[in-house]
Every structure is written in structure tokens, then in C-alpha cells.
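3.2 Worked example (two chains)
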Amino acid sequence: MFNIGDKVVYPMHGAGIIEAIEEKEILGVRKKYYIMKIPIGDMKVMIPLDSVEQVGLREVIDSEGVKQVFTILQQDHSKMSSNWNRRYRANMEKIKSGDIFQVAEVFRNLMYREKEKGLSTGERKMLDSAKQILVSELVLAQEKSEEDVDEILNRLLADVS
């Protein structure tokens, strides 16, 4: 159970802060919801308390986790399928997992691919999504601005190989 003020990650949406816990009636069913504000994109999300496990809501990483993300970003890219469809599905599964380390890997690999061969529209969108999820969590984990985190990522990936 999370509390108001907790920093959490909602897979596929990114990281935010629980602003309230409210009971609401939707389609005739009363449930309690976390009201989560995601600062990047200025979005509010309602998450039913009874489906927290199912959606994969989790706490934001700590400073050790941040170091691990930075290490992943600096590693060589992973071997990716040359088949666009397989590559896309594998990357999407990693993003959907909600695991920040897998999201960092997808981001790194797509950045490499973009520099080497360019990206299709679908993969460009996936890269943007992975970056938004990554940035949103790093902003809250490090208590830095979006611009600062963006700058750190650019610096780390300047020499992507």
C-alpha cells in the first residue's frame, strides 16, 4: 500500500507522485483509487487500489538503481533482431515490464540503431516513449529537473557504440 506523497512508477506511463487516495464511483462500481500526478506531460492517472499488483505499480528506484541505469546506458548495445517486427515486439515487452533497467536497455539500443541506420516511425515513437519513462523516473529519483536529466542522458549517450 502506498501513501500520499510516495514516488511511484506506473509502467508504460512513467513516474509520478501519489497526490490523493479517493473513493469514486465509475460505471456504478465504488472503488478506492490512487490519484497520481505524472509531472512530465502534466498528466493525472487514477489507479484502482485493487489492481496495483496487476498493473505493476512500484516505488521509484533509489540512488543505487540510478547508478545501475547509468551503467546500462554506457554499456555496448545488445544484439537486436534484424527483423523489424521481432525487434519491435521484444522492445515493447521490455517497456511494458515496468523494469527501469530494461527500459534503459531499450533506450540505449534504439539510440544506437538511430545513429547507425535510422529508425522507422514506429521505433522512433518507441524511443521517445522509452526516453519519457526513463526521464520521468530519473527526475524523481534524483530530484533534478527534466532538463538536467536530459543533459545527463545526452552526455552518457554521446559515445553510444
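3.2.1 Second chain
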Amino acid sequence: MPSLLITGANRGIGLELCRQCLEQGWTVFATCRQPEKAKALLSLQDKATELSVYALDVRNSEQLEGLQSVIGSQPIDVLFNNAAVYAEEASQFGHCDEDAWKEAVAVNLLAPMKMMECFVDNVARSEMKVIANLSSKMGSMADNRSGGSYAYRATKAALNAVTVSAAQDLKHRDIIVMVLHPGWVRTDMGGPQGELSVEQSVSRLLELIHRADKSDSGKFLDIDGTEIPW
């Protein structure tokens, strides 16, 4: 059965992705900053021997190296870069806090890049060979009609660019590298007015991943499989 390595697995989309993959018989390597406080994730672990939970602050190079050592040479069918911050303090013109910007760059951009670099060999050893970077329509410059959300938009747009480059660089290894938009989801970040439940969003994301082929590599895909303009 396939295997998943995911960041930000303690809540929202990350947690639900773990749950649905486990239901489908996947092996799941789940990471989050403070596993001891991730009660819902630990509850899943109590019921599923296929779930392993690891402490990982995606900004912490030592923890990343430790995870790399633990995973070793195990194949990873899907590397799913999910962890992200909104950076509220860097969202409004004239009120952009420098520290908030630095955190957004570290978590939303540099961390997915490092995860890809650290685990590319594991992905290459797998059957599916998929790297999925969770972005957002808010990273689309063509779709930006409301302004604001400066750090979040900028770092997601940069993640999109990184993904396209990785898709080109890893083409010779038959690795599919995709940017996915989860829809407007009812999560802590998306808010209660979201159009989709977490369960609906993750179900559709998994459909995109299952049917992905080389033609999808380097694409920015909406939840319904259509391409989003950059």
C-alpha cells in the first residue's frame, strides 16, 4: 500500500489527510511541532499501527535531519507539504511586521523546499512518486482582486515558483511535483464560512493525487482538477 509523509498533521487538512489515508490502508508518517499536544492525532495513532507520529518544527534543521535519519531509505509515495502560517501581522499595507514576514518565508517557502530536498530519494524509490505542495488561490497573482494578505500571498506565490522548478529538475526521475489548492475550507485558517468541509476537501485532494500523472507535474491545480492561473 502507498505511504504518506506529511507536515502539519495535528489539525485541519493535515489531520484529515492522515485519517483518510489510514482508512485506505496507507502507511502514514505524520509530523507536527508538538505531538504531545496533538490529542486528535495521538488518538488516531492509538487505533492505527500504520501511523507514526514525529516531532517536527519545519524551521528546525536538527529535527529535520533527525526525521530523515528515522525514515532512512523507506519509500515515500506522497510527500505532502501542508504546514503553513497565515502571518496576520504581515497582512496589511503599512503594518507589515518583519518578524512575521521571516516566519512566513521560513514555514511557507523554505520548509517545503528543504522537505523536498531531504526526501526526494525516498519519493524516487516509491511507486507513485508524488510531491504535493499545498498552496492557495491567494498565491495566484491573476486571481488577486482584493489585495492584502501580503506575506501569505507572496510566500504561496514563491512556493508555486519553487514547485515548477522542482518539477523540471526532477522530471528525469519520473517524480510528479504539483501545487494544489484545497478550496475554501472550514478550518482555523479558512474560517467558518468556507465552502467545503475538511472531509470534502481532503477527499478531492486525494482524488487528484491518485490520478496524477506526468502531465500534471508543474501544474497549479484547483480542487476540481482545473488549472489555476499563476
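3.3 Remarks
The radius of gyration is 16 Å.
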